[in-house]
Amino acid sequence: MKTYNILFLCTHNSARSVIGEALASTHASGKLIGFSAGSTPGTSVNPFAAEIAKELGHDTSKLRSKNWDEFSLPDAPQMDFIITVCDDAAGEQCPFWPGKPATAHWGFPDPSKVQGSDLEKKAAFIQVMNGLKRRIDLLASMPLERLDSISLKEIHSKA
Protein backbone atom coordinates (compact mmCIF):
# COMPACT_ATOMS: atom_id res chain seq x y z
CA MET A 1 0.00 0.00 0.00
CA LYS A 2 1.29 3.43 -0.93
CA THR A 3 1.73 5.91 1.90
CA TYR A 4 1.33 9.67 1.62
CA ASN A 5 3.39 12.34 3.35
CA ILE A 6 1.40 15.14 4.95
CA LEU A 7 3.00 18.26 6.43
CA PHE A 8 1.06 20.29 9.01
CA LEU A 9 2.15 23.90 9.33
CA CYS A 10 1.63 26.36 12.15
CA THR A 11 3.63 29.44 12.99
CA HIS A 12 5.43 28.10 16.09
CA ASN A 13 5.13 24.34 15.45
CA SER A 14 4.41 23.64 19.10
CA ALA A 15 0.76 22.55 19.35
CA ARG A 16 -1.75 22.19 16.48
CA SER A 17 0.74 21.08 13.83
CA VAL A 18 2.33 18.60 16.25
CA ILE A 19 -1.07 17.07 16.99
CA GLY A 20 -1.71 16.80 13.24
CA GLU A 21 1.63 15.03 12.76
CA ALA A 22 0.81 12.54 15.53
CA LEU A 23 -2.72 11.88 14.29
CA ALA A 24 -1.64 11.30 10.70
CA SER A 25 1.29 9.08 11.66
CA THR A 26 -0.83 6.89 13.94
CA HIS A 27 -3.95 6.81 11.74
CA ALA A 28 -5.52 3.36 11.58
CA SER A 29 -5.51 3.39 7.75
CA GLY A 30 -1.71 3.29 7.67
CA LYS A 31 -1.88 5.52 4.58
CA LEU A 32 -0.38 8.68 6.08
CA ILE A 33 2.99 9.74 7.41
CA GLY A 34 2.72 12.98 9.36
CA PHE A 35 5.25 15.76 9.64
CA SER A 36 5.04 19.23 11.19
CA ALA A 37 6.88 22.52 10.98
CA GLY A 38 6.48 26.26 11.47
CA SER A 39 7.55 29.55 9.96
CA THR A 40 9.04 30.76 13.25
CA PRO A 41 9.32 27.65 15.39
CA GLY A 42 9.37 27.91 19.14
CA THR A 43 11.96 26.43 21.41
CA SER A 44 9.91 23.38 22.38
CA VAL A 45 6.74 21.40 21.80
CA ASN A 46 3.86 22.32 24.08
CA PRO A 47 3.63 19.73 26.90
CA PHE A 48 -0.11 19.18 26.27
CA ALA A 49 0.55 18.47 22.57
CA ALA A 50 3.40 16.11 23.49
CA GLU A 51 1.13 14.31 25.95
CA ILE A 52 -1.55 13.83 23.27
CA ALA A 53 1.06 12.58 20.80
CA LYS A 54 2.27 10.07 23.39
CA GLU A 55 -1.30 8.93 24.16
CA LEU A 56 -1.83 8.36 20.41
CA GLY A 57 1.23 6.11 20.34
CA HIS A 58 3.40 8.52 18.35
CA ASP A 59 7.17 8.37 18.88
CA THR A 60 7.64 11.51 20.96
CA SER A 61 11.43 11.21 21.06
CA LYS A 62 11.55 12.85 17.62
CA LEU A 63 9.12 15.68 18.40
CA ARG A 64 10.67 19.13 18.16
CA SER A 65 9.72 22.52 16.82
CA LYS A 66 11.10 22.67 13.27
CA ASN A 67 11.42 25.41 10.69
CA TRP A 68 9.43 24.72 7.54
CA ASP A 69 12.54 25.44 5.46
CA GLU A 70 13.75 21.93 6.44
CA PHE A 71 11.05 20.49 4.19
CA SER A 72 12.04 22.51 1.13
CA LEU A 73 15.60 21.12 1.09
CA PRO A 74 16.63 18.63 -1.63
CA ASP A 75 17.04 15.72 0.82
CA ALA A 76 13.74 16.35 2.64
CA PRO A 77 10.85 13.92 2.29
CA GLN A 78 8.62 14.98 -0.60
CA MET A 79 5.16 16.00 0.59
CA ASP A 80 1.91 14.90 -1.01
CA PHE A 81 -0.24 17.23 1.11
CA ILE A 82 0.48 20.42 3.03
CA ILE A 83 -2.08 21.69 5.53
CA THR A 84 -1.87 24.96 7.46
CA VAL A 85 -3.68 24.70 10.78
CA CYS A 86 -3.38 28.28 12.01
CA ASP A 87 -4.52 31.47 10.34
CA ASP A 88 -1.15 33.19 10.76
CA ALA A 89 0.75 30.48 8.87
CA ALA A 90 -1.92 30.41 6.16
CA GLY A 91 -1.27 34.08 5.44
CA GLU A 92 2.52 33.79 5.27
CA GLN A 93 4.67 33.30 2.20
CA CYS A 94 5.54 29.61 2.24
CA PRO A 95 8.72 28.17 0.74
CA PHE A 96 8.68 26.34 -2.57
CA TRP A 97 7.50 22.77 -1.99
CA PRO A 98 9.07 20.21 -4.33
CA GLY A 99 6.64 17.91 -6.13
CA LYS A 100 3.68 20.32 -6.20
CA PRO A 101 1.77 18.92 -3.20
CA ALA A 102 -1.94 19.58 -2.76
CA THR A 103 -2.45 22.33 -0.16
CA ALA A 104 -5.26 23.50 2.08
CA HIS A 105 -6.00 25.50 5.21
CA TRP A 106 -7.77 23.81 8.12
CA GLY A 107 -7.80 26.59 10.72
CA PHE A 108 -8.13 25.88 14.43
CA PRO A 109 -7.90 28.24 17.42
CA ASP A 110 -4.61 28.11 19.29
CA PRO A 111 -5.17 25.87 22.34
CA SER A 112 -1.95 27.12 23.95
CA LYS A 113 -3.61 30.52 24.45
CA VAL A 114 -6.35 29.12 26.69
CA GLN A 115 -6.19 30.44 30.24
CA GLY A 116 -7.37 28.49 33.25
CA SER A 117 -6.69 25.20 34.95
CA ASP A 118 -4.67 22.41 33.41
CA LEU A 119 -7.95 20.57 32.87
CA GLU A 120 -9.35 23.50 30.87
CA LYS A 121 -6.14 23.78 28.86
CA LYS A 122 -6.10 20.03 28.10
CA ALA A 123 -9.75 20.26 27.00
CA ALA A 124 -8.78 22.91 24.43
CA PHE A 125 -6.06 20.63 23.05
CA ILE A 126 -8.48 17.70 22.90
CA GLN A 127 -10.98 19.86 21.01
CA VAL A 128 -8.32 20.65 18.38
CA MET A 129 -7.31 16.98 18.27
CA ASN A 130 -10.92 15.92 17.65
CA GLY A 131 -11.34 18.47 14.86
CA LEU A 132 -8.12 17.39 13.17
CA LYS A 133 -9.05 13.73 13.58
CA ARG A 134 -12.37 14.27 11.77
CA ARG A 135 -10.60 15.90 8.84
CA ILE A 136 -7.80 13.32 8.71
CA ASP A 137 -10.40 10.51 8.81
CA LEU A 138 -12.15 12.11 5.82
CA LEU A 139 -8.85 12.57 4.02
CA ALA A 140 -7.82 8.94 4.54
CA SER A 141 -11.18 7.72 3.20
CA MET A 142 -10.71 9.54 -0.12
CA PRO A 143 -8.88 8.32 -3.24
CA LEU A 144 -5.60 9.98 -2.21
CA GLU A 145 -3.88 9.37 -5.54
CA ARG A 146 -6.42 11.67 -7.22
CA LEU A 147 -6.79 14.30 -4.51
CA ASP A 148 -6.04 17.90 -5.47
CA SER A 149 -6.01 21.18 -3.55
CA ILE A 150 -9.69 21.88 -4.25
CA SER A 151 -10.78 18.49 -2.89
CA LEU A 152 -8.47 18.90 0.11
CA LYS A 153 -10.02 22.27 0.96
CA GLU A 154 -13.51 20.77 0.78
CA ILE A 155 -12.64 18.43 3.66
CA HIS A 156 -12.56 21.48 5.93
CA SER A 157 -16.16 22.35 5.14
CA LYS A 158 -17.40 18.75 5.50
CA ALA A 159 -15.88 18.06 8.92
Automatic annotation (TrEMBL):
Keywords recorded for this protein, A-Z: Arsenical resistance
A GO BP entry: response to arsenic-containing substance
Short name of any one Pfam family annotated for the protein: LMWPc
UniProt domain Phosphotyrosine protein phosphatase I: residue ranges: 4-142
Gene3D superfamilies cross-referenced by the UniProt entry: 3.40.50.2300
Highest taxon in the source lineage: Bacteria
UniProt xrefs under PANTHER family: ARSENATE REDUCTASE
Name listed for the protein in its UniProt record: Protein-tyrosine-phosphatase
Organism from which the protein derives: Polynucleobacter antarcticus
